[in-house]
Design a protein that fits this description.
- It is a peripheral membrane protein.
- The chain contains eleven helices and ten strands.
- With about 260 residues, the protein is α/β, with parallel strands linked by helices.
- It has a single domain, classed as 3-Layer(aba) Sandwich (Rossmann fold), CATH 3.40.50.
- The strands form two sheets. It has a six-stranded mixed β-sheet with strand order 6-7-8-3-9-10, with helices on both faces.
- Helix 4 (about 105-115) packs parallel to helix 7 (about 150-165).
- The longest helix is centred in the C-terminal third of the chain and has 22 residues, at about 245-265.
- It is globular and about 55 Å long.
- Bound molecules: adenosine-5'-triphosphate.
- Adenosine-5'-triphosphate (ATP) binds near residues 36, 41, 56 and 57.
């Protein structure tokens, strides 16, 4: 059985279809990309998968996460799989972090709630989680409020929180878009390393093909709420079939060529 099965997922707002009949599966340890331009329905897909669609939007079709029906099931069933089974990292870490709570307490919360840790064991687990995302000054970071941290540090804290319960699936929704380029590369390496170390399946959402190529193997290209092409990312880059995938590949190539020219000058 797949860890995640999405079958005929459609998301509507009133009469408008925002995600249109998409299907894909993710097995344990897979790394799957959802690539597409802004507004193509990637984030709504991630939210529908975790049962977190905003009010006013409705989902139909089938989403099964570790066997739980994320559309027809009860809120209680959906809540039970969030954290231990699937966690999300968002583009802007401030979305996930509580601005009024110190980073250490935010990481402690899921460790307490889901893994039942308390006292010195909990404290050590928080510091361990911070070290795992390569934040060394753990005392200071744990005591800091989100606004006292850099963007890269905040995203590391958000990743530590998401991974605290050792989810089997991590959904990373444009996790590096808000960061500058060097920090972007560090966060991608970190996600890559942690997913390998824990055997975590990864759904990686991005508009950026070269970024996706660094961390995923298979991908679905989304446009206008639909999946227009699927396959191993290497094959898509070598021989894109859909005209939209071709424009993504061409623009990545143009960007690469421009970088090379600049480096030569
Ligand atoms: N709460 C909402 N109510 C109505 N329409 C929405 C809502 N949220 C998103 N949409 C619309 O649904 C479409 C898909 O949005 P979605 O956020 O999934 O796109 P995306 O591919 O993730 O883009 P981005 O990378 O910009 O986040 C867009 O046209 C968006 O305007």
């Amino acid at each position: 059985m797949s860890l995640l099965t999405v079958s005929g997922l459609t998301v509507r707002s009133g009469g408008t279809t925002l995600v249109d009949d998409i299907s894909f599966t993710v097995a344990q340890g897979d790394r799957v990309g959802l690539i597409g331009e802004s507004g193509s329905g990637k984030s709504l897909t991630a939210l529908a998968v975790t049962g977190l669609l905003p009010p006013g939007l409705t989902a139909t079709g089938e989403v099964r996460l570790d066997g739980v029906d994320m559309i027809g099931g009860t809120e209680r069933q959906r809540t039970a799989v969030r954290g231990p089974v699937a966690a999300i990292v968002f583009q802007e870490p401030l979305t996930a972090l509580n601005p009024l709570m110190r980073a250490g307490r935010q990481i402690a919360e899921p460790l307490r709630r889901v893994r039942g840790l308390r006292g010195p064991v909990l404290r050590e687990a928080v510091h361990g989680a911070l070290r795992e995302v390569l934040l060394d000054d753990t005392d200071r970071i744990a005591r800091s409020y989100p606004h006292q941290l850099s963007g890269g540090q905040r995203q590391r804290v958000a990743i530590a929180m998401a991974l605290a319960c050792r989810p089997r699936l991590l959904i990373a929704d444009e996790p590096t878009t808000a960061l500058d380029v060097t920090v972007q590369a560090e966060i991608l390496d970190l996600l890559d390393r942690l997913a390998t170390a824990h055997g975590t399946a990864l759904v990686f959402i991005t508009h950026d093909l070269p970024v996706a190529a660094r961390v995923i193997r298979d991908t679905h290209v989304m446009r206008g709420g639909r999946i227009v092409e699927s396959g191993p990312i290497s094959s898509l880059i070598a021989g894109p079939a859909h005209p939209y995938t071709r424009t993504l590949v061409d623009s990545a190539r143009r960007f690469d060529a421009a970088l090379e020219r600049t480096a030569r000058d």
